[in-house]
Amino acid sequence: MTLGVFLAVLAAAAMHAGWNAFVKIRLEPLLAMTMITSAAGVLALPALAVTGLPRIEAWPWLLGSVIFHVGYYIGLAEAYRRAEMSQIYPLARGSAPLLTTAIGISFFGEKLAPLQLGAIAVLGLGIMLISILGRRRGSRFDPIALGFAALAAVMIAAYTLVDGLGARAAGDPHAYSAALFVIDALPLAIFVAIRRGRPAWATMKPYWLQGSAGGTLALGAYWIAIWAMTVAPIPLVAALRESSVLFAAVIAFVWLKEPLQPSRLLACGLILISLALMRIA
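Request: output the structure for the sequence above.
Response:
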């Protein structure tokens, strides 16, 4: 992985943590997620007009990605409804690169050097420790929230591999990304319109500025990741992207007033070591 790709994916990680923080605004997480995906879809429309549609070979991947993204949104929204960002975000994101690596190597012929595999393992360990060591004193893990976080992790691994392979099949990662965001905006918006009706949209109206900001970050974060997966191994990009938990920990502490215990510094240190290993591997 070149330095330029490495830095771009790190920037995407920061943006990813940012849009996840918007899900925790004073609004039901499902509605917040709907605003973010809708805003990202609207922003992608002009880009789609420029890039055009991706090649026909990419469309099965696109449709699969949308299905997995819907599962991810539901899992993440339900987990955030029951637990803190500082617990859920690392659990969901930490296990995902390990799953992506295992599936990518076993079934899709992705190749990684031993040092890169070690870096991904260290990253996963550090991320999981952030969640374990980061909860409020005396608080307990909600098993239902953990279940939804696990669902989100599986969906992350699935859509990451699908989008990496789909963007390669498309021949143009930008056309693939633009089409994905436009299509991906529809399922949640339709679901909320049918199940909640006008009251839901009235509830969301005061938060559209925050939702638009979250959508902008979500668009930039994943667009960069999709492009990166066409020029670097998918598992490596997926793992590097999960360094977003460092940014998420800061956001959760400063903005959401969630705890940042000194014990979590060990976990953050492991993540920094993994980033160094990825860069030199």
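The mean pLDDT is 85.
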